[in-house]
Design brief:
Strand content: 15-25%
Number of strands: 9
Shape: globular
Bound molecules: ligand C2E, calcium ion
Amino acid sequence: AKAQGRNGIAFYKQGMSDAVSRQLKLEVALRKAIEERQFRLYYQAQVNIGNGQVSGAEVLIRWNHPELGIIAPDEFISVLESSALISIVGQWVFETACYQLAQWVADGIWKDDYHLCINISPRQFRDTDFTAGIERVVKKTGVPAHCLEMEITENIVIYDLDKAIEIMRDLHGLGIRFSIDDFGTGYSSLRYIKRLPVNVLKIDRTFIQDMCTEKDDASIVDTIIAMARHMGLDVVAEGVETQDQLELLKSLGCPNYQGYYFSPPGTADEFKQLLLAA
Ligand code: C2E
Ligand code: CA
Ligand code: CA
Ligand code: CA
């Protein structure tokens, strides 16, 4: 059950003349997708490098289009973000992931120190009722909030930074952790980033990809891991595909990783099998 980005591209091409009408048609299709519940959640394991055990999962959305099949998020997240539909879908992702987590907890297969990581668009931080909505879902589903982690990107600083920090503190109060996704790829200064109350840095997979052949990439990864250690932050390396990458990360003291080498994103049932095997 791999993502099929190409189907998404075919979708874009269907007799549409210009970029605007393409965007509009995609928006209409996405509204329909929301109404008809065409979105699905996939889960990708995070792994403790020290003992090779699962330490949690990242939640990744898919669009199960009735004709085109599974469409990857890169084809539609930006459209959702530009049209404010991201708030509706983002809320759905959070709620659905929490119900799933509650189920795994009830099944006795979710350990208390695992983390379920949910991508949050910077734009969701602008919703006036964002925190209240999260709090409501946490209460309603009864999930252990300390098992939840929100992945935000450095782009959060393009919005009101003080406001973002306030929201993060409120959610911290509930027990939710924060990570900075795609760390090292944004344009924001460390001066801003250090003000954000985060717990985890996720090293972008573009650095991992070439770290075994490019000295510069290896140094960047080394530096991020060292910096995180000094700041008391946890680290996850993303997009680990080979044993060589894993070995190098291990030698650099990276505590956790995620990637096809361990397992690709899969359905809730597929991830459950990983938990059962753990
Ligand atoms: P991301 O947050 O950086 O997620 C990691 C992406 O890397 C995922 O792509 C995942 O399938 C892919 N990946 C994982 N391991 C490997 C590997 O070993 N090699 C390679 N080449 N790729 C790997 P995916 O699922 O297509 O998601 C793309 C992006 O869409 C995500 O990037 C995230 O920015 C966004 N996204 C996904 N789900 C959500 C969501 O629920 N909400 C929001 N706001 N954004 C989401
Ligand atoms: Ca992510
Ligand atoms: Ca990422
Ligand atoms: Ca990314």
